[in-house]
Amino acid sequence: MASSFASKIILIAIFSLLSSSAVSVKGQTRTFKKIYAFGDSFTDTGNTKSASGPSGFGHVSSSPYGSSFFNHSTNRYSDGRLVIDFVAEALSLPYLPPYLHSKKNDAFGVNFAVGGSTAINHEFFVRNNLTLDITPQSIQTQVLWFNRYLDSQGCKGVASECKEDFDDTLFWFGEIGVNDYAYTLGSTVSPDTIRKLSISSVSNALQVLLQRGAKYLVVQGLPLTGCLPLSLYLKPEDEKDDIGCVRSINEKSYAHNLVLQDKLQQFRNQYPHAMIAYADYYNAYRAVMQNPAKFGFAERFTVCCGAGQGPYNFSVFATCGTPNSTVCSSPSQYVNWDGVHLTEAMYKAVSNMFLRGNYSQPPFSSMLDMKQRHG
């Protein structure tokens, strides 16, 4: 990298990576009464604002973030709604309040996701001197918040005490782990080490939810992170794969997802009472990149809100919301919002594939059927 300053700016940008009317699924409404969500900036609906979150995209609290749907910022890393918002809409539930700002408006669930959050505990990055402006919250923090929240609701003990609540609750475990790989970029920490530690951490978090009695659980895999403009900005042209994305980064996400799916199968065997679905973010994203026009997209790589120049309209020195950035006139035709996060249109396309398509195993409709049968 050209300078120490540039290196810091790039790292700051990298760590933030992973930062209406109700439409029913299959014509059913209020199948679930509540949602608890976890994850990073792809799922966060406002915890970052008070959680020492990413500053590389720190303008998330102001326009143009949120402007396509909410007409004002809602502390979401997009121009509008996220996957978790479309999940709530599909179940005829209100949008989830962030845990740190719930203000008792939590009758239909809570969102514990934090932009910039990691799977691996923060102390690991401290020990390896990788703590430059990194969000201190990890998935362990979110589970700690979750346990505190349950305690405050009078659900303090074993699974049986939470059963009535959990029987009507969907647990949505958004993608998490991309930041772990991003934070260690250029360090001596190997991708194999990150994969092993992050999967272990995610597994521990999932086990806590299942032990406490979670019955309906959707777990997202990592997305096609090599297709993000930030990845393309940092990597040379000769690393491109068959769809124009960074091969080495996509391979890390793919390998991570294979191990995650093996873990989920182990949990299915260990907790036969629970229904655990895998939401295949990687292949859903890939389907869009292979045939963008089918999903209404004209721009696969160009950023809607960014530097106003360069091959991707992206620069770590002029990120979305800064004075030198520009905003496109039609975000719905773009896959990428700010170079790291996706547009509302892309989140909607992906959520449809999860909820109504074939990119959830088993299909989400099967989970709804199971919920209907068991009441």
Report on the architecture of this protein.
With 375 residues, the chain is α/β, with parallel strands linked by helices. It has a single domain (4-282, 360-368), classed as Rossmann fold (3-Layer(aba) Sandwich), CATH 3.40.50. The protein has twelve helices and ten strands. The strands form three sheets. Strands 2-1-3-4-5-10 form a six-stranded mixed beta sheet, with helices on both faces. Helix 7 (191-211) runs parallel beside helix 9.
Topology of helices and strands:
Layout: H1 4-15, E1 34-38, H2 83-90, E2 109-111, H3 122-127, H4 139-152, H5 159-166, E3 169-173, H6 178-183, H7 191-211, E4 216-220, H8 229-234, H9 247-270, E5 275-279, H10 281-290, E6 299-303, E7 305-306, E8 326-327, E9 334-336, H11 344-355, E10 360-361, H12 364-374
Parallel strand pairs: 1-2, 1-3, 3-4, 4-5, 6-9
Antiparallel strand pairs: 5-10, 7-8
Helix pairs in contact: 2-11, 7-9, 10-11
Summarize the structure.
The protein is of the alpha/beta class.
Tally of distinct domains: 1
What is the CATH C level class, in words?
Answer: Alpha Beta
- Helix tally equals 12
Would you identify the regions where 5 or more consecutive residues have pLDDT less than 50? 1-24, 50-55
Level-2 CATH architecture: 3-Layer(aba) Sandwich
Strand content: 5-15%
Given helix and strand content, the structural type is alpha/beta
Question: How is the CATH topology named?
Answer: Rossmann fold
